[in-house]
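Could you help me review a protein record that somebody else here produced? Here is the record exactly as it was handed to me:
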Amino acid sequence: MKKNIVYVLLILLLIGTIIYGVVDRLSVEKDLKNVEIVLDYNAFNEMARDSEHDIIWWFDFLSESGVKAVSVEEESIKSLIKEGNALESTMLMNLKNDAFWFERYPQSFVDYINQEDYDNSDVVILSADKELKNFILNGLKNKYEESFYKVFEENNKFAILLDGQKDDVLYNKKHKLFNEKGKGFREVSEPISSKLEYYKLGFSEEKISNVKKSKLKLNLRASNNKLFPKKQLQYYKNMLSKYNIKEDYMIFTGKEVLSYPHIDELKEYMQEHNIIPALIETQVQRSNIDQRGLNELVEKMDYQAVRVLPIVPYIQERFKYYGYKGAEEVENVIFRGVIERNIRLIYFRPFLYNKRVYVTDPNEYKISFERLKNRLLKHNIEMTGISTMKNHFNSIYYPLLISIGILGLITFIFKLLFDFKNIYGYLFIVLGSVFVFVALKVSMRLSLILLSLGTAIISGFIGSIVISIYAKNILIRKTDYSFTKITIRNILFTISMALIPLISGLIIASVLSGSDYLLEITFYRGVKLSEMLPLLLFVISYVLILGFNRDISELKHGMKLKDIVDMLTANVKLFHMILGAIAAVALIVYVARSGHESGIEPMRLEILFRNLMETKLIARPRLKEFLIAIPSLMILSYSAYRGIKAFIFVFSFASMITFTSIVNTFCHLRTPLYISIARTFIGLGFGIIIGVILTGILEIIVRLINKIKSKKELELR
């Protein structure tokens, strides 16, 4: 023991540092106890038109179900036309497609077109509605320079010319023209619209008034224009002041934040008025949509930001989905966003039966929000407003101490295997620590990623060595234990094996616990590699320790490199090739399914089972863990005790999912740590129960086979 005191102290240092990091991260996440639902005005306005109630009634009704606010977007030429206003918009390059265009426009505009060398990229707006004209002109005056537009008016008609550029023109997708024989003639792409038609013109006073009349808060969505960014910011300030709006958060519309690239002015205003930026999650539910300047703004504001889940059309359409009677699947999507992805603002749009038909029954919304509220309360989360995390980043010393502890642990394991002098181990630890310190100083971010990746791979490597040695020792001893005693040992072995990836996962979760990871501005990219490499390392360690085609009696001879050579040069039969192909396909499916962007969708029955577990348990365990990985650990252990060597490799390989899957759970850094821990222990518990049942069945089969063998032997005598 005295010879190994240094290693023991380093391992204790590792454990203590991990505990500190876990407690630290839990303290960061503990403040996320509130979530807010904000309604999309335009979507609810469309739904209200199809229902028996006006939009103000809907706002008041939903306020009783926990909804807090309504978000209003600025109008554009396109939105005004979509809402049925007497307005049309034409690019000048398409103007003369109408042979009688000059009869419809003010004469002053006709003269301008006939006399001037006009720009084909410009856009002209035409209407006879004076109220509409005033709204558009006020928006242009407040948000753009006078050089951007010209006004032509006479005989109760007005035309406004907007100054466009070539890159503002929008074309339809290229399509082929065919002759009467079906032979391709040429590919064409026609100009159909302009970015100018999407430029924001200001907020509708009618929409603002409707929200003000209701019981809900008003939120104004901010938009920018790259040509006049400072005027956009000033307009937004004026609107908040004019309507006495106290914003808690700012949701940006478009591809950039308000006032971009003048981020500092926006930051100062937001900090002065206690407004935080909103990060809108992508539709694949990984990271946030890219809006220029947003990450810079969040960083400048010390990562005080809120993540937003937009209820996009494909989610809206999950009404009566998977055979549910109502909006259960929409609730599931929202629930997972809040519980598993640090979402604290739901940008809600009404349910849809299909792409065009809204759900207009008020009770469906009341029941859905009530169910959601009760589910969230089980996690002490209330629908009372947004909540944020304090800014958090580790100092250089935390990953350094973790690294020193890991170096000590690795050195100790190899010393047990190869029994070298302590001086060599100490030298390795010192040199490794110096290297890690220099690496952290040079590039903290890259070093943390490499440390996390290394931890994940080492976890699998240690697991593969322990499993192989454990199975080998049991096979050599040939101890005939009772099934009860084997089961107890199996359970203890399984728990101890699960602790290895659990500790590794906690290291990763605490090392990569910076606010940028928790808000998913940055995310860990080593997941796939940390799933694949341990499986390869397992094959190597298994062959070295348990040999290649060795009999149990030959296992005492220790490790032989010849086994690796024999494996690589072995004759491969067709049967082996078929098994290898099946294993390769299974492995590809396993890796491909570990992420939101996979093209492989789970089966409907699997999804329903997952949803059921989510409603009944504090955290849903991973199916592959408790159905495959954990039971495989118990079966391989049972097989070793009963001397069934043929089973050991197959179930040892399957049991490696324990190490890759549990570590992968903690690599989802946006998921609160208590959820990942609970998910792991619940999966372990379920897996042990299934493992006990399966080994019990195996024991019955083994006894029956032994009984038949004994009977035959007696008959032969």
